[in-house]
Write a structure and sequence with these properties.
single chain, alpha/beta, Rossmann fold, 8-stranded mixed beta sheet, binds adenosine-5'-diphosphate, binds magnesium ion
Length: about 250
């Protein structure tokens, strides 16, 4: 198991098990309470963590800069991680960010794979490829698997490669269901320029984190991104593959 280092802040002051949690961001109309279905947590956890991908220490400062300005102990947050183009580091970023959040806060976090046609999350955390998101969206059980990382769970993309677009409407209810069980929901999304990018889902999340790749992502790629994504939904950028020599 990967557990927090002693240098991480301890959990003192956080609500203990059994204490009431606030349901949703107070006063935030984005998350109306809807009918929540039970979340089925797999009894056998993932059997590995791909340590070529998970180097979460690099993400700690990012984690703290996201949370320090507000009292994250009383709110539930959902972040979509995307990028203008393919291969800029979305999956790497979302897996590391989810690890840093779950270890740094000690709070239950789930990472959801929204890349139905090219899923990766199940490989990173050594879990089955499904059932997962696709099955949950078409009305089957909502299945989540514990990972080898404390407080981190994963929902793979699932075994249905294609689902009718109308089924994406079920995401709002799925988010409500996941928030009954988890405090942070992180979504590995397709690239914004991809036809599979679900604007509908992006608009239901607390916000987006956009990964750009040093020396690859163009300024015009970012401008194009803002044609499909409202500016206020972007909470942060991650600059991937920076060369320390460039500082
Ligand atoms: N900072 C990094 N250093 C080294 N390799 C990286 C880094 N970020 C991503 N990669 C590699 O680049 C490839 C694409 O990254 P990935 O996170 O899968 O991108 P995306 O999800 O945006 O398509 C993967 O093989 C990944 O391991
Ligand atoms: Mg990816």
């Amino acid at each position: 198991m990967i557990t927090p280092d002693s240098k991480y802040p301890d959990d003192s002051g956080h609500p203990k098990d059994g204490e009431p949690m606030s349901g949703h961001i107070r006063g935030n109309a984005r998350y109306p309470i809807e009918y929540a279905r039970p979340v089925r947590i797999n009894t056998s956890p993932g059997d590995s963590v791909d340590t070529r991908i998970i180097k979460y220490n690099l993400y700690n400062s990012f984690n703290y800069s996201l949370f320090l300005p507000q009292d994250y102990r009383t709110i539930k947050l959902s972040f979509g991680v995307t990028s203008p183009n393919r291969g800029e580091g979305k999956t790497t970023a979302v897996c590391n960010l989810a690890t840093a959040i779950s270890l740094g806060t000690g709070r239950k976090t789930v990472v959801v794979d929204l890349n139905l046609s090219n899923p990766r999350i199940h490989n990173v955390f050594g879990i089955p490829s499904g059932p997962g998101l696709a099955e949950a969206l078409v009305g089957e059980d909502i299945c989540v698997v514990p990972t080898q990382i404390d407080n981190l769970f994963a929902m793979p993309a699932g075994n249905l490669k294609v689902i009718p677009p109308s089924k994406f409407l079920a995401f709002r209810g799925l988010l409500t269901s996941l928030f009954k069980e988890f405090e942070f929901v992180l979504v590995d999304m397709p690239a914004v320029q991809s036809r599979a990018f679900p604007t509908l889902i992006a608009n239901q999340l607390t916000g987006l984190i956009v990964v750009v790749k040093a020396k690859k992502t163009k300024r015009r790629d970012v401008s194009r991104l803002f044609r499909r994504v409202r500016q206020e939904t972007v909470l942060a950028f991650v600059m991937n593959e920076i060369d320390e020599k460039d500082f």
